[in-house]
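Hi P.,

Sorry for the delay on this. The queue was packed all week, but I finally got your sequence through. Input first:
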Amino acid sequence: MSNDLTPSEARFVRALCGSGPLGMPPLGMARALGVTSATVINLSMVVERKGFCIRERFGMRIFLRPTSAALAYNASCIETPELMQPTPEPRRKRAPRAPRPR
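Then the structure:
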């Protein structure tokens, strides 16, 4: 797999870098991102394969921690904010309504 991140993966990596050096449990990450914990688990597996995340177990708890590549990616996003914001799509006009029969 390539190291290119999709927008959802990039958002996940930025949130993960904001969680601190100890990382965050998947349920806490899900609440922070507003998605389900299954979505966070799937994203963490993909991002871990790309080298931006580490899953570590402390006792019965799992923590997601950012790697140095994730911290470097987050720093580059801060320096170039156009990477963080998606380009807005122009709004399409609605078709005119058909006249109502009377």
